[in-house]
């Protein structure tokens, strides 16, 4: 009875070790893919352009996060509504 419990615990430990190995392999595979993609991007565009792209991406995400806040969302709706009303009220000017 004790040997059965010991055997089962060993099997559980082996399966846990296999799970940890698989998890580590997946992590390093994903990390390698991101590094490879970053390296290709850096070689294709150069350091300055890559840093500019990163800055623009971060700024875009920050703006989108801020616009999701209820206070700012309401301001955007009001300003879009006002601009659409002004657009309808203004003459076409040949366009």
Question: What key attributes describe this structure?
Answer:
single chain, 95 residues, mainly alpha, 2 domains, 3 helices, 89% helix, 0% strand, elongated
Short description:
Helix content is 89%, strand content 0%. By secondary structure, it is mainly α.
Q: Would you give an account of this structure?
A:
The protein is an all-alpha fold. It is elongated, with a radius of gyration of 28 Å. The model has no long low-confidence stretch (mean pLDDT 81). It starts with a helix and ends in a 6-residue tail after the last helix. The protein has 3 helices and no strands. The protein folds into 2 domains: 45 residues; 43 residues. 89% of the residues lie in helices and 0% in strands.
Topology (elements, then pairings):
Layout: H1 2-45, H2 47-67, H3 70-89
Helix pairs in contact: 1-2
The succession of helices and strands, N to C, reads HHH
> How many strands in all?
0
Helix content: over 70%
Average pLDDT confidence is: 81
What's the structural domain tally?
2
Find the structural class using helix and strand composition: mainly alpha
Taken as a percent bin, the fraction of beta residues is under 5%
Number of helices: 3
Largest sheet: none
Distance between the termini: 89 Å
- Which value, in Å, is the CA radius of gyration? 28 Å
Low-confidence stretches: none
Please tell me what the overall shape is.
Answer: elongated
């Amino acid at each position: 009875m004790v040997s059965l419990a010991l055997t089962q615990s060993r099997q559980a430990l082996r399966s846990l070790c296999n799970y940890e190995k698989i998890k580590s392999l997946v992590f390093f595979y994903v990390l390698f893919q991101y590094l490879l993609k970053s390296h290709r991007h850096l070689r294709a565009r150069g350091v300055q352009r890559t840093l500019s792209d990163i800055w623009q991406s971060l700024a875009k995400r920050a703006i989108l996060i801020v616009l999701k806040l209820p206070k700012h969302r309401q301001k955007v709706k009001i300003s879009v509504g006002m601009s659409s009303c002004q657009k309808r009220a203004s003459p076409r000017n040949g366009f």
